């Protein structure tokens, strides 16, 4: 089980340690930060995109398919009043010489992203006092 330990190094920065990795977050100036690191929300969105990217890359490597030009772009739509996240749109760009016979299969592979699945069937989050 992964344990994430959080600390507060200063300002509105929040640091997370997971295993041997340290992840720093900050806020933009309009939210009191110095923009020295991505915001937690930016990391959340990045985790969706990088997870999908891993599945795309693995699909290509397992089949010895080209990866030059392989890319994923993530765009979001928010509700205009509540600012609630409504849509995450990922656009998969394939290499120019990517075989057409694998196009639907790579989409199915990318759709297996575990971060996306966690959003589709969200876990219960419990908050307790120590």
TrEMBL record:
Domain of life per record: Bacteria
InterPro entries found in the cross-reference section: KH_dom-like_a/b, OsmC/Ohr_fam, OsmC/Ohrsf
A Pfam family hit: OsmC
Coiled coil: none
Entry-linked PANTHER family: OSMC-LIKE PROTEIN, PROTEIN INVOLVED IN RIMO-MEDIATED BETA-METHYLTHIOLATION OF RIBOSOMAL PROTEIN S12 YCAO
Name of the protein in question: OsmC family protein
Organism, scientific name: Pelovirga terrestris
């Amino acid at each position: 089980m992964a344990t994430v330990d959080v600390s507060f190094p200063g300002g509105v920065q929040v640091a997370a340690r997971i295993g041997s990795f340290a992840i720093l977050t900050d806020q933009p100036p309009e939210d009191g930060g110095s923009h020295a690191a991505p915001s937690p929300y930016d990391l959340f969105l990045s985790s969706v995109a990088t997870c999908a990217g891993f599945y795309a890359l693995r699909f290509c490597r397992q089949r010895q398919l080209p990866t030059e030009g392989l890319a994923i772009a993530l765009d979001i739509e928010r509700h205009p009043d509540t600012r609630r996240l409504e849509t995450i749109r990922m656009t998969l760009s394939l290499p120019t010489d990517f075989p057409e016979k694998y196009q639907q299969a790579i989409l199915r592979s990318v759709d297996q992203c575990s971060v996306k699945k966690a959003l589709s069937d969200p876990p219960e989050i419990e908050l307790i006092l120590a």
